[in-house]
Every structure is written in structure tokens, then in C-alpha cells.
Amino acid sequence: MSEVILQATHIKKYFHDPVTVPVLNDLSLSVNKGEFVSVVGKSGCGKSTLLYVLSTMDTDYEGELWIEQELVTGQKEKQLARIRNEKIGFVFQFHYLLNEFSVLKNVMLPGLKLNKYSAEEIEHRAMERLKMLYIDDLALKGANQLSGGQKQRVAIARALINDPAIIMGDEPTGNLDKKNGQIVFDIFKELATQYHQTLLVVTHDTEFAQNTNRIIEMEDGKVIRQ
Amino acid sequence: MNYRLIVNIAISLLKARWRQTLVAAIGVTFSITMFIALLSFMTGLNGLLDGLILNRTPHVRIYNDTKPTKRQPVTLAPENKSAHNFIHSVKSASGRLEIYNSAAILDLLHHDGRVLGVAPKIVAPVFFNAGTIDITGVVNGIDVQAESSLFHFNDYIVAGNAIDLKNVPNSIILGKGVAEKLLAELGDVVQVTTSQGETMPLKVVGYFQSGLQDFDKVQCYTSINTAQKLLGKPNNYLTDIQIKLHDLNGAPAVAREYGGLFQADTEDIQTANSQFETGSFIRTLISYSVGITLLIVAGFGIYNILNMMIYEKMDAIAIMKATGFSGADVNRIFIVIALSIGLAGGSVGLIMGYILSVVINHIPFKTAALPTISTFPVNYNPVFYVIATVFSLVTTYLAGFFPARKASKVDPVVIIRGK
After folding, report:
1. Complex confidence, ipTM
2. Measured between beta carbons, which residues in chain B are less than 8 angstroms from residue A162?
3. Are residues B219 and B359 located together in one domain of the fold?
4. How many of the other CB atoms lie within 10 Å of CB of B368?
5. Cis omega (within 30 of 0) on the bond before B412?
6. In angstroms, what separates the C-alpha of A18 from chain B's closest C-alpha?
7. What CA–CA distance (Å, rounded) separates B350 from B76?
8. What are B355-402's pLDDT values in tens digits?
9. Do B320 and A109 touch (CB under 8 A)?
10. Chain B residues with CB-CB distance to A80 below 8 A
11. Where is the ABC transporter domain (chain A) (predicted)?
12. Domain count along chain A
């Protein structure tokens, strides 16, 4: 039995506007180390909501959430920020790079925030990650000079900078064309197989989901198959 | 806490919107410049106007007033002690104006630690005889050196030398107004008659102009010895003792104490010139309120810029929060932005304010009322610069506080899902 990275038990969440609607309904799941998990489901089934609960950014829920055996539920905002910084890497549908900074600086930012290594070391690590994703030649360009596919790869490099326990993706290929989408998927796959990186990706791209280790299928705020 | 990172991010955000940043900073610069220039100029002017009177006014003055005796003999008689006594038509007796035992008083004053300096004086009403007419005036017998060092007597001599009063026997410095009436040139001899009828020729060695017309039409100065000779009095005769204290605010208490101690009338500067303090206070108040208003307006400029920046950088804030920056970090970033605008704008403002003050100080300003002044007065008080610095930082901090709080409360989920 491998190590459990992320565990959610009896998660319930409601939307209150305009009327109270349950979005997540007594949902439990766990992700083991090294797993490449995808969450699929129809629009509005609550898969993105689930991801934000799991990512600690949304704290308005019932139930318990554990990341690497640490209870996350009920922690203070500052602690949650630290957990996100240290243990979770994000890749969103939109790249969300900061245009004010170079590619390299964008990748370095979470590392600088963690402040575990010296600035030189973080730079070195950032270059390593960029090399791994074959975009080290773009390091000194501005974030807004890149193509969509390149930006998404920079976002992945940024997610990797602190060696997170888990990488979470919210439709990471949703905004990309087929070719770039494939590249991003291949990167994820490589991370999972070669580096035993744990990944949890929300997607409605069935082809993408098919190629992951495990598919969690959701409907009406519940897991119907995993 | 990783402040270097926060400052780094703040600078990058500022650079991305350098134009607006510059406008906000110029707003602060402008207000600080005006604040400093205005206050320096206003208080300079205040100092000048106050100095017109206050410089020449002793902090405590000891003299003997001509007035009826407070305790009439009838009340002093033992048999009348228990009764009410009514006396009508009380008149002032021809009391002596001189201060009793003046030498001992002067000696005591010289040894009092609170006293900065003492200038004895003789005041005597006189007539100047010019042809067929007599012009009334007042002769002040003064100790020139004490008077110059304590009351800036030198500054008001527009012709001749103050020290000649001491060096030339039987000399006089005429008020400008008196001199014009007498048509007296330097070196002329004027005839002075006292109220007792004694006449004495005095040589004019200078003109005195205070800037107060009424004052200059009557006041004249001689040395103490000359005044004593003129009045036919011995050389311990003094009518006034003027005292300058180290601490101006202690004047009323000291005046009361000396009044009791020397059995003489005393007057303190606060009582004598209360209206000047009121005027200065109001002028300073106005300057401060204008300056502070300017700063607050500049603060709104910064508030605007930051608010815009936050709306524009919503994505950046969201992703920073998603990748591990806490609300407090984001808050600090925007506070740093606000403070650096304030600091940069403010420090340029301090320099500009100083330059503007210097420029004002060089603008020619000549008026007959103020013979010693040729340019606008400016008070280079470092306190204004300190106040301006503190105030620019406080207003920019407050201007940054609310936008920063808003930024720190940005919910990354809302932003990221909204795309």
C-alpha cells in the first residue's frame, strides 16, 4: 500500500446564492503517492468546486481534508497559504503568468516565497525545471511574449518549483489546441511515470482522462465511479 | 518574512504602471513642496511681524507707575481698621518714578539663573525746541550694549552708529519721524527741554526707525548718563528695568515674583502683547490646514492609482495567493507600493520645498515700515520638514491601507473560476 497524499472525507458543500443548493454531497476520495488521477464529469457536476476545496483555496465546506497526513480543514488563512506554497502546485486552464516578470522570475516566485533555498539555488532549480520542459531558451523572455502552449509549460514549471506533494490541474489543456494539449499531457504523463509526481487533474477531455492511471467520475456532487 | 521578495514584487508592479505612479508621486511632491514653502514663508512672516514688537519688548519690565496709593492713610490708622472707609476724589501723589534701590536690584537680577539679560532704562518725556515750536517726545536713556544684544537696537538704526551714544558725550539718536519734524541732520545739535524746565543741547549721532510710525515720531535715545544729566538726577536713577528671560513662557510668574520682591510694578510680555500671539497662531493654523489639505488630496490620488492597479492586477493577486502568498503578503505588497510612492514623492517634495523657500527668500520686498528687511522672510525650521515627512508617510499609508486590504481579501477561487 503506497502512501496517501491527499484524503478527503465526507466533503459537503453548498452554494447559497440565490438558494441553497448542494454542490458536493458527502464526497470522499483519496489520492496515493505517484498516482495520475483525472476527475471527469459533466459541466456543473461540481468537479471544479471539488478541486478548489481540495486545493485549500475554498474553505467554506463541511468534512475533513488531509494533505500528507496533515489536517488542513480549519487551518488559518496564513497556514493554508503556506500549505499551498509548499505542497501544492497549480496548473489552471488559463496560464496566469505575471506579465511584469520574466519567465524565469515567474517560475521562481513560489520558490522565493517558500524561502527554503537561496535565490541562486532557486534560479538554478527553476532553470532545471524549464530544461525538463524544453523551454529553457525562453527563460529571459517576458511572460507576454510567449505562445499559449509555451505559457502553459511555464505554468507547469512554476507548479514544480517547490517539489510539491501534488500537482492539481483545472482543465490544463482546455485552452490549448490539439498539438499543444498533447504536449502538456505528455509532460504530465512523464512527470507521473519518471518522477513519480502525484497529479490530480480536472478535465472534460475524455481522451486525456482515458490515458491517466485512474479516473474519478462525478455526477451531481458525488463520485459515481473511481 | 521575506521582505526582499515583497519589495521586489512591489517594484515590478510599480514599473508596470510607471506613468500613473509618476502622477501620484508628483501629487505628493507638489503637496509637500507647497506645505513646506507655505509654512516656511508664513512663519517667517510671523516671526518678522512679531519681532517688530516682541523683539523690542522686554519679557519682564520693572517700573513705578504713577497712580494713587492703594492703601490710603485712613485705612492704615489702627482705629479705623475695623471700619469701612470712604474717600472720594483720590488723586495720584507726585510719586517718584525712579526704582528704589536700583543698584541692588540689578545686582540680584544678574545673579538670577532664569534671567538672560538685563537692560536698565530711563524714560523721560521732553520737548524738542525747533525755532518757535516745541515738539513733544520721549527720551529713553539706555545702556546701548545691553539694548543691542537683548533688543536688537542696532537693527533699527538707519543712519549713524548706535555705539556713538556711548562714545560721544551728550549725544542723541532721534526717531526718524522726530528728525524729519526737526529737520535735524546727523551732527546737528538739538535743544531738549525736560518737563521740569531744564534745557540741554544734544548732538544728533543717528536716526532710529522701527517701522511703527507713531513710535518713530516720539521716541529718541540717549545714554543713561546723558539722561541722568538731562534730568538732573544722580547716577543710580533708573525708571525701568527691562529683563529678558531664558524661557519666555515663565514671564508672568517671574513678573509676579519680582513685583512682590521689589515693591514695584511689573509687566510681562504676555500681558503686554497678547494680540500678537493670537495673530501668529491664526496664521500658522491657516498654513497648516492648507498644507494638510493638499496632502490629503494627494492621498486620494494614491488611493485611486492603487485601486485601479488592484482591479487590473486581480489575476496576478489571485495567482500569487494560489501559489502560496497569504493575504498579509499581498497586503504588504500594496502598502509597500503606497509608501514608496509617498517616500519618493515626499523626499523630492522636501528638496523642492527647500528650493522654493530659498527662491521666496530672494524675492525683493522693500517697505518703509520695515527698514531692516529687503527680501521676503523665510523660516527654515527643520520641524516643518519632519512634519511634512511624517505626514506624507501617514497619508500615503492610509491611502494604501484600504486598497491593500481589498487586495488581500481577493478570493482566488472567484477570479480563477471566472475565466
Report:
1. 0.84
2. 324
3. no
4. 9
5. no
6. 16
7. 68
8. 999 999 999 887 766 666 788 888 888 988 998 888 888 888 888 888
9. yes
10. 326
11. 6-226
12. 1
